Amino acid sequence: MKVHEYQGKEILAQHGVAVQRGVVAETVAEAVAAAEQMAAEGVTLFVVKAQIHAGGRGKGGGVKLAKSIDEVRQKAEAILGMQLVTPQTGPEGQLVRKVLITAAEDIAHEYYVGVTLDRARGQNVLMASTEGGVEIEEVAAATPEKIVKVWVDPAIGLRPFQAVEVASRLGFEGAAFKQAVKFVRALYAAYEQSDATIAEINPLVLTDDGNVIALDAKVNLDDNALFRHPDLAEMRDEHEEDPLEVEAGKHSLNYIKLDGNVGCMVNGAGLAMGTMDLIKLAGGEPANFLDVGGTANAQTVEAGFRIILSDPNVEAILVNIFGGIVRCDRVARGVVEAANNVEINVPLIVRLQGTNAEEGMEILRNSGVELESAIQLQEAADKVTAALGQ
Amino acid sequence: MSILVNTDSRVVVQGITGKEGTFHAEQMLEYGTTVIGGVTPGKGGQTHLDRPVFNTVREAVEQERANVACIFVPPPFAADAILEAADAGIEVIVCITEGIPVRDMIPVKPYVQKKGARLIGPNCPGVLTPGECKVGIMPTMIFAEGSVGVISRSGTLTYEAVDQLTRAGLGQTTAVGIGGDPIVGTQFIDALELFEADPATEAIVMIGEIGGSAEEEGAQFVKDHMTKPVFGFIAGRTAPPGRRMGHAGAIVSGGKGTADAKMQAMREAGITTVESPAAIGETVKQHFAQVA
């Protein structure tokens, strides 16, 4: 699960990470009020930051410096309600519903610090670099020697000496050195205790007055661990997700919308991806990823059809079920019921194989529903090609 | 011959009294697997499916000489179930449970290794040796005895590959579903090594998907250590970057873990790659026809 910058900072602050907080505003008036409050505390320079679940916000014009309260008003007016396009949003962009108002810091140096899982080692890895403020992937590709990596042995956890090593190799000195050590330890604790999949600070800054603080925060959480963090689960912002994907989730369907012309409904994530690849080889483009999971029944299949058909680009639908736990006769009944309740106005190809496939085929044949059936995967692919050629 | 499980396997089902555990234990018994009983804490002394229920795995080992565990325990308790099985001296631990938090799995893998046990999964369909033993949830009617080993990160794609092989007249030694999570106990490398050492296995099909680097590591192992022919398919060529495709481990991020890069690594290692998921069986069949 992704959370906004301001929420990520909240999580980190709870674990003692030094972050620059700011105030969240959903309206221009709130933004101005926040800036006035800061001005009363002596702040003269502000930053207005769009809060969306995508990186690269600055490049898209979603982060602006404001030199006065009036400028805060102007920038907030411009950013709130805009469709912010960044390298991570896709061409249609993302509607900005909230901005974060912060003080602008006098920055002596920008760093990068992040924690994530190193899958190959099965250990968490803490990465840091003196090259903050830029894409860390670019730094890693061009100058890998500038990235400090520290792996965490699960038997002993992140040890203080490792945090010292990171601070030292980043070149911190004096009081800032101690702050950096504390920062690294707190960041790791926050990552681990909140079951994050990534906790990334870019930039971490050393201010002119010698403080070490996070100006930005990217925190993703492990969906599988949200059951033990009800407070974090509440941070979910459905506005940031595709409405069809949210709807699918309510029916226990795992759906991801894509840009193609052939919809597909499959059981199992691997076979769903394989089916998308097959559609491409058959001359189409997949319109979606849709895994109906191991408990597919008439209701979920019908919901799946409704969601697929709500995409106007869909010219054909391929249902590909390899019954293991899922029983093909149940899926076949679902297809028949859905065809009676939902108007399926595009060619439908149904491939059933595995548990109770014969019974499923019998149900489809006797239903009178207009569809092409297939047993082998290649047969299904050929029928998709034929349907697109019509 | 086979790998991991065979007629000597004595399976204890952890979570046997639950709905999933009951259903699949029945299916395993029906296939002829020796299921010695199950574990459900607090229900020790009861019988279920005409088999004893124990409070702990250790009791199942001591009283029924269990040497394989099959885990159907809910996600919050599954990591502990794996540790318990390893601690009790179980040799092969198959964890079917989907949705275990990554943080719970991180300390599990080194502990299992320290105990000399082998973990398959989690979030996997299990292991099946045709005609001998089924541990997990794979549909049995698609299998046939033969000489092809199958390794896959995905459940239903495993079934697809096995079905195509059987239809092409090629049976299997063993099929292993290694699981779709970021941390799994057995990787491609481990399963490839076992198949290479198994005299009955003449060829191996490995099915990967986007995300991580396990396929690349597997390919390197094939290049360096394998003498048997390997066939490979990677699912997710059409998957967009930055989106998790169902499995927690299936995500292309920072340009890493793409299907094309994995296919490339496989080809460079001498693995015969299959472009279409519909052509797995035929490709292996053609190879055997040429050899003959």
Give a written overview of the molecule.
The complex is a heterodimer of chains A (390) and B (292). Chain A is α+β, with helices and mostly antiparallel strands. Chain A has 13 helices and 18 strands. In chain A, helix 11 links the parallel strand 16 and strand 17. In chain A, helix 2 (28-40) runs antiparallel to helix 3, helix 5 crosses helix 6 and helix 11 packs parallel to helix 12 (357-367). Chain B is α/β, with parallel strands linked by helices. Chain B has 10 helices and 14 strands. Chain B has helices spanning 19-30, 57-64, 75-87, 102-105, 108-114, 155-167, 188-197, 214-225, 259-268, 280-291, and strands spanning 11-14, 35-39, 47-48, 51-54, 68-71, 92-95, 118-120, 126-129, 133-136, 145-152, 172-177, 203-209, 230-235, 272-273. Chain B has a 7-stranded mixed β-sheet, with helices on both faces. In chain B, helix 6 packs across helix 10 and helix 7 (188-197) packs parallel to helix 8. The longest helix of chain B is centred in the N-terminal third of the chain and has 13 residues, at 75-87. Chain B is globular, with a radius of gyration of 18 Å. Chain B starts with 10 loop residues before the first strand and ends with a helix. The model of chain B has no long low-confidence stretch (mean pLDDT 95). Chains A and B meet through helix 9 and helix 13 of A and helix 4 and helix 6 of B.
